[in-house]
Write a structure and sequence with these properties.
alpha/beta; Rossmann fold; 7-stranded mixed β-sheet; 3-stranded mixed β-sheet; 10 helices; 27% helix; 26% strand; globular
């Protein structure tokens, strides 16, 4: 299989959603200022960009929080956060000035990116606006979006989904993480107020167009691979069925692989299933 090109923005220098066998097929581009000891040698290629991306190339304030994963270009909104568990993780340790750049300046359009994952604590729309050219050939996006105003002035889920809809993407699934005010309750998964969610969106044409350009067939095969990896075999089958230009025997072989993956999937934290190995691809 040809190389699958993946971007992970706000990766905290890790891409935990990738399985061992998938890494051998992936050229991974990670974007974050944090560095850790993760080993990326298993990937076909790995390019780490120690830079934060946004809507433009400029210098911006960046709020470093007590829990580093909560750090953001947007100031934590303590009027909201104070009502929920562990607000201290958002306490600001330091405000630094940092250079930002656009995805379109950092990624060669010839890389033909297949999949983009974005988790930037409120700055997701900024990342998208700085990567419109990069997104032209992207088949799917996984993005974390807020229901609550966790960060002051940060766009909420409906703003970002409208923008992605205008770019031709449609939502195929979301997993909601809830917050509550009690130390006794479960702070995750439908126990409390919906705080944020991981949204999976697929470029609409790959699900609705029966006649895709021949150049899109390779992209479609990559999309099928990504969807199965993320735990969406039935959506992957929809993509297979949209490929009228693919040879029937090839389509049948792909369907067989996708269907075989379903019984072997492992539990997923949002109730879906994720298969641990995709060697057959």
């Amino acid at each position: 299989m040809s190389t699958v090109e993946i971007i992970d923005v706000g990766s905290f220098n890790r891409a935990s959603f990738l399985t061992q066998s998938l890494k051998k097929t992936v050229s991974l581009h990670t974007f974050d200022i944090n560095l850790d000891e993760n080993d990326f040698s298993d990937y076909r290629e790995h390019h780490h960009h120690r830079v934060l991306v946004g809507a433009s190339k400029c210098k911006k304030n960046f709020f470093l929080t007590k829990k580093r994963e909560c750090s953001s270009f947007y100031k934590p909104n303590f009027e909201t956060i104070k009502h929920y568990r562990h607000p201290e993780r958002f306490d600001i340790d330091e405000v630094i000035q940092i250079d930002t750049d656009m995805l379109d300046n950092l990624i060669d359009i010839e890389n033909n990116i297949d999949f983009v994952k974005i988790d930037t604590q409120g700055a997701e729309l900024d990342v998208l606006k700085g990567g419109e050219k990069t997104l032209l050939n992207v088949t799917a996006v996984q993005i974390e979006l807020s229901f609550l105003d966790i960060y002051s002035s940060a766009p909420l889920y409906f703003d970002v989904l409208k923008y992605l809809d205008d770019l031709g993407f449609m939502v195929v699934d979301t997993g909601v993480v809830s917050w509550n005010t009690s130390d006794k309750g479960n702070a995750k998964y439908h126990d409390g107020v919906a705080a944020f969610g991981d949204f999976l969106l697929v470029k609409r044409k790959f699900l609705t167009d029966s006649l895709l350009e021949q150049s899109s067939v390779r992209k479609s095969c990559h999309l099928i691979f990504i969807l199965v990896m993320l735990g969406y075999p039935l959506v992957a089958l929809d993509v297979v069925n949209s490929l009228s230009s693919i040879a029937p025997k090839t389509a049948a072989a792909i369907k067989k692989i996708v269907l075989q993956s379903i019984p072997n999937m492992a539990p997923h934290p949002f109730g879906r299933k994720v298969k641990p190995d995709y060697g057959d691809f």
